[in-house]
Amino acid sequence: MVPLIGLSLVFSILLAVHVVRSGQQMYWLWIILAFQPLGGFIYFLAVVLPEITGGPAGRQLTEAARKALDPEREYRQAKERCDDSPTTANLARLAAAAAGLGRHGEAENLYRQAAVSIHSEDPTLLLGRAKALVELNRHAEALTVLEQLGEQGEAGRTAQVSMAMGRCYQALGRLAEADTAYEWAAIRLPGLEGLARYAVFLAETGRQGEAQEAFTEIEKRAAKARSHFRREAKVWRDMAAAAVQAA
Questions:
Q1: Which of 32, 46, 111, 152 could form a disulfide with 65 if both were Cys (CB 3.0 to 4.6 A apart)?
Q2: In whole angstroms, what is the distance from residue 38 CA to residue 155 CA?
Q3: Of residues 193, 172, 191, the one with CA closest to residue 182
Q4: CA gyration radius for the chain?
C-alpha cells in the first residue's frame, strides 16, 4: 500500500511540473493534487497523451476536456482581447464565444457592432447575427438578415443559412418554404442537427411517417458516431425522439 501511495505522489509531482513548464492553465495543478491519482490520469489523458500522439483526434480530446472543465475560458480570453482592442475580428470572436454559452442577446449585439462599414456584408457576421436573432425568437428580423445574406450568391447559400431560414419560415407560419429549406439543409449539413430539426418539423406538421423515417436515419448515424461526437449526437437524437414520440 505504501509503495502505491509513493508512486501516486511521484506521478502527481511529475505532472505538476509538466503543467508549469508547458504553460498549462493553473487549475490543472489543483485537479492533479486534490484528486490523486484520478486527477493525474485525467490530465495525462487530456493533455499529455494528445501531445505524444498528436493529430486531430488528440487536439479534439484536449479541447473537449478544456471546455468541460472551464467552459468560459474562450469567452474570458476573447473578452480580454476585445477590451484591449475592439476590432472587427475580436468582436466576432467574442460574439461566437457568447453564443456558445447561450448568451444570444450579447452575441447579437456584438455581431451587429462588428458588421459595419466595409464589413457590413461579411457572411460570417451576418449569419452569426441571424442565428442569434433566431435563438431570441426575433424571426422576422433574422429573416431580413438572412435575405440580405442570400443576395451574396454562393456565400449566402450554405446549409447553415438554409437551416436558419427554415426555422424562421416555420416560426412565421410559412410552412412550404420551411419544408424546402429544412430538407435542403438536412441533406447537406454535417452532423445530425439538420436531420434532427427536419424530423421535428415533420412531426410538428403532422407528417409522422416521414418524421419516423428521418428519426430511424438519425439513430443509424448516432450509433456510428465517433466517441468525441457522441454527446452532441445524443442531444440531436433526443430532440428528434421527443418530437416523434409526441406526434
A1: 46
A2: 47
A3: 193
A4: 22
